[in-house]
What does this fold into?
Amino acid sequence: MEEGRRLQRISRTAKDAVRLRRAMVVMMSAQGQSVPDTTSLMQVSADYVRDVIHAFNEQGFEALDPKWSGGRPRMISSQVREHICLIARTSPADWKISAFSTWSLTRLAEHLVKQNVVPAVSRGTLRRILREGRVSWQTSTTWKSSNDPDFIAKMHRILALYDSPPTDGRVVCVDEFGPLNLMPRKGKAWRPHRSPRRLRATYNRYDGVMHMLAVLDLATGKMYYRIRSRKRWCEFLSLLKSLRIRWPGEKLYVVLDNFSPHKHPNVRAWAAANDIELVFPPTYGSWLNWIESEFAALRYFALALPPTHPSRTWTEYPAKAA
It folds into this structure.
């Protein structure tokens, strides 16, 4: 479960295209998607998908990082590089240095020269050594593990719906995406060398923010959505009613997260009376929702692309409304 949350975090924050693509492939595999489905969505070959999955199983998260090669031979040996990474993980107070409380690249380089670790080292070289040694500038973080006593049962229930859809109904995944607003979003585009596209930054939200209530039909692979200014229980109940009208006579298995509006008494009562089963994941297990990987692709391939015209908005990208 910890790996699932970490993959979800990488799919949202990764800036390297190779790392992001590999993380999305692994997350889709963890959610039970087949290789043909992954190749169709990511536009890669089946061999690439299998190679990424096998490499992740063998190496873990290190398999997500691209391995570049080439260049001149290293002037600093591997043993010295390990020593540098070890010193970087210490505090200046450990070396009886009270003038500052943490290392900067300049201070660390001066300290390495003073300790005769290296004759000289630039900040750029030091930065690369620390990056290769998997030492990075980080803040303290917290972590959560699932305290759900029924974690295994709930996880197997969702994966069983993905692997063996019931014959008496339809499995859909539901989640909210947002808040969304019409401010420029940084992305990537093919441009002349050293001539990036510039977007005027703005934080004015004259029309407020919006939320997308989305539904992924696993039988057809289509996504349906509604755009609303709020995401309360009443908006969610309205979405369920539209799904009931769209697929009459079928039992609906709705996979969704533990967002409080999903568990409102009115929502539960209406769903039970209209042959809709709400399938909740375990606590801190929202990464099991298949629609999360679709949101990652939407965020990267649609929202993060700079618009070609100031009036173009994210709603102009092809999608099917509920």
